[in-house]
User: Fold these one by one.
Assistant:
Number 1:
Amino acid sequence: MPMRILTFGVFIVALSPPPLSVQAAQSAATITGRVIDGDTQAPLAGARVMLLPALMGEPRGPMGPPAQSVTGDDGRYTFSGIAEGSYRLQVQRIGFIQPTDVSTVQVGAGQTLAGPDLRLSKGGAISGRVLDARGEPMVEVMVTALRKQSDNLGPGPSRGGPPALAAGQPGQTNDIGEFRIAGLPAGDYYVSASSRPATPFGGSSSPSGGATPVTTFYPGTASIAEAHVLTVAAGQTINSLEFRMLFAPGYSVAGVVVDETNTPVAGAMVILMPNQVVGPGPRGSARTEPDGAFKINGVAPGSYVLNASIPMTFTASGGGLGSVSYSSDPSSMIRLTVVDRDVAGLTVVSRKPVTR
């Protein structure tokens, strides 16, 4: 009798489905491949590979940053525990050109997939120094290579767009004012120097009326139309650029953010961006007060786009507070020009997002 009971018990266990954790492990997939130098075919160590859903915004597992893998000496990347689905691979490495083509993979449940070889080509570089008006080194200045957009400079449907777009990996000047911009595809470039982009949650520290750095283009002009064009060949490094940063009085930009019902919005994030040149980053930012008011100081003369993003609260399961994000309404953008005085009385209308 004891033997019969034992046999029956084993039989029941054999028919029971595996636990959910075991099922998930059995259906999880693995992707592995290599990153190689497209010119020498040698493996590239230290390349960062990211795995993202093939369709933008399509969920693939829990919320958070995308899965990443850093290649070793053999250039190999590996992703484990991947859910079934379609993915795209992005790769980057300092000094190499960011690929424009997209590698996609289709992963089946429990599959071990040989991913594609991701090829990177060595980029060009521009290096030099940025000085102030006295010839002293400018420290912690962002220096950006802006690729000339020739189609936007003449007649045609693209006229009026940005004359230049940021390319490569921007450089920041060190304690002796030196910078290096790497990962540049062959092409024609302007070089611009500007103060570090404003952080999204903090305003400009420069007081209104004080001298503030102006975005300066090589060889030392505030106008991109007067900037020198540098032609970078494939893999070429242009050395020893040197130019002086320009300064101008800083002014303030102030106003109020309201929603579509004209109700002031507290805690909105207001960002001021250059109007034409894409690349230097925000020129100022602020958070609105309880009455919706904001003020950004230290704004140099120029043309800008002002935009407001409204706080949006996500609730966790059970009704508790989950996280706070920001919803940007493109229709809230305001174009403005700062000339020789403070700009005040702006009203930014942004649609209030639906709380989830």
Number 2:
Amino acid sequence: MASIQRMVSPLTGAVSYRAQVRVKGRSSESETFPNRKEAKDWAASIETAIREGRHFPHAQSRRTSFDALAADYAATVLAEFDEVQRAARTHQLAWWAKQFNGLSLAQITPDRVSKARDVCAAETFSRGKPRSDKKTGEVIEPRAYKRSGATVNRYIAALSHLLSFTVKERRLLDRNPVSDIRRKKESRGRTRFLSDDERERLLKACGDSDWPALRSLVLLALTTGARRGELIGLQWADVDVKAGRALVRESKNGEQRTLPLAGKALEALRELKLRGSARSEHVFAQPSGFPGSYEHFDAHWRAALAAADISDMRFHDLRHTTASMLAAQGASLLEIADVLGHRTLAMVKRYSHLVVDHKATVIDRMVAAKGL
């Protein structure tokens, strides 16, 4: 049975209401609210949860630290993620652990999560190290960035998954506090892509690069629409230059997919193999001869962009260029999604304006065939 008690502060005269629900066989549960309605609503929700068998005492949640839960989650749930996803979630949860340092699960309330979310969005960070201008000798600090709305939402999603595990499997909380948290607005994403002239200039600059494999990598990116990590991770064992196929064993969405190889990209791969790249198991091997793929080729990429006089261009934008070229050749959004490796059409909606002519052609054919 619930009881609502009206309380008046002897110092300020402020009125508050304490709701108390007695749990059979246990001590009572109580919370304080600024008005009677909120107190009654809370008490009613607790009583309903008790009747439906969904109410769990908070004593253990007060004794369990956020760090202990995160360690439990990492050992049982994160262990089932692939390496890339596990690394991302581990990084995100380590950030949350700093925000909730010393707190128990019972203290992870929606308002605390909300404030931490705003900290996540406001924090600045930089990529790279300070460098000296070759002409003036001036020290140039790396550019400062803020997390995008989409990135902040990924952090919130990681925390939400952890706390859902707490509710459903460890039964330490009645409800996931992240459920009440507003997500950040996400931009539609960049749609920067190369013009025909820019594409030719970039490929020429890549051909003159100090890293000979850069042109092959860019050609593959342009003709397959594959992600940077998918291409850099390619191994010769997964490439069939005779059949013109390459197998991506680990994609971003966790599925394997096959990349068709054709044209200059296929020729470039054959040349790489003939020049001795096949001595390494990775297609894009370390120039130094060390084992592993050449993940950090950014200096060569930036040098090629500078030589080609191309600005505001990221390696990932080569995927947008692939999509734009496919759209120009009449590909549908479904076909573009298939080439880029998206499981839903939502991710390729940004290209919808590029396929207007194709849609008009399809409608014209239908009208002509049906006499409409």
